[in-house]
Amino acid sequence: MSSFLNYYCLLILQEFQHLAQALTLKTHITSEIGKYLANFSKINSSHERLVIVTDGKDVVTVIQGHSVQEFPVIQVPLGHIKSTNGAGDAFVGGKDSYRCNILL
Q1: With the C-alpha atoms ordered 29, 51, 74, 14, is the resulting torsion angle positive or negative?
Q2: Which of 12, 66, 90, 91 is the 20 to 30 Å CA partner of 82?
Q3: Catalytic (active site) residue 89
Q4: Exposure of 84 by Cβ count < 10 A (0-12 exposed, 13-18 middle, 19+ buried)?
Q5: Per the residue annotation, which of 55, 58, 89, 96 is the catalytic one?
Q6: DSSP summary character for residue 20
Q7: Neighbours of 37 (CB within 10 A)
Q8: 3-class SS at 17?
Q9: Can you tell me the distance from the alpha carbon of 97 to that of 104, in angstroms, rounded to the nearest whole number?
């Protein structure tokens, strides 16, 4: 597993505590696992790896280097939710759109 991590500049993960077991880490704390992944060796070391962890209706954690930021998820009343299909795709699309607007 660690052999492919060297190539990633951005990781977007959902509920990834199971990775701790695969990487033989002794923690299940999201920020600690995220820091490990963010600081894992990279082929392209010109910029830091960005790790984004979503956890359903709970907080979104963003890790870059040793910096950890948490963003609360806005709760939507259940009656307003028609389907959660595509929610992850929409999240990534929104992130990509934001990033493209910054770069332009």
Answers
A1: negative
A2: 12
A3: yes
A4: exposed
A5: 89
A6: H
A7: 20
A8: coil
A9: 11
Output the six-digit token pair for 51: 């790790």
Q: Is the pTM of this model over 0.90?
A: no
Statement: residue 18 has pLDDT above 80: no
Give burial (CB, 10 Å; 0-12/13-18/19+) of 17.
middle
| Residues 30-51: tens digit of each pLDDT | 888 889 889 988 888 888 888 9
Nearest to 99 by CA among 33, 9, 4, 39: 9
Q: Judge whether 102 and 95 are in contact, CB under 8 Å.
A: no
The token duo for 81 is 């939710």
| Dist CA 48 CA 40 (whole Å) | 10
- CA torsion, points 57, 93, 12, 28, in degrees to nearest 10? 0
Tokens at 83, concatenated: 């389907």
Cβ contact 84:75 at 8 Å:
no
